[in-house]
Design goal:
mainly alpha, 4 helices
């Protein structure tokens, strides 16, 4: 009869336990720095620049909106958990700032046209 406690029979445990089913992996600081979804990064930066530079708002705002929506769709198809939260956040930042940048840029353009025609 063999000894059930022999070293060859002891189950090996990994040094890093895997998450339980239904739990997500932990998020590290690297997730916020490394853009795992380039569309999300493009959306975020175009949206922020469209909001800061009013004259570029009507040009960069729609780019931010479209790339943000595409990024959210691509993010749903991906199976990797790495950076998923950061990419989703960047996409929503791009969509919201893109909408605001487009509206502010259009208002800025209308004000400039009204000033040129009235004065």
């Amino acid at each position: 009869m063999s000894n059930p406690y022999e070293p060859s029979q002891v189950p090996q445990q990994s040094p890093h336990p895997s998450p339980m089913p239904g739990q997500s992996q932990s998020v590290s600081a690297l997730d916020a720095v490394v853009p795992t979804n380039p569309l999300a990064a493009i959306s975020c930066w175009c949206g922020i620049i469209s909001l800061l530079l009013c004259m570029l708002g009507p040009l960069l705002g729609p780019i931010a909106i479209v790339t943000g929506v595409l990024s959210l769709r691509v993010g749903e198809l991906g199976s990797s958990q790495y950076g998923k939260t950061a990419s989703k956040l960047r996409s929503w930042i791009g969509i919201v700032t893109g909408i605001c940048g487009t509206l502010v840029g259009l208002l800025f353009a209308v004000a400039m046209i009204a000033n040129a025609l009235g004065g």
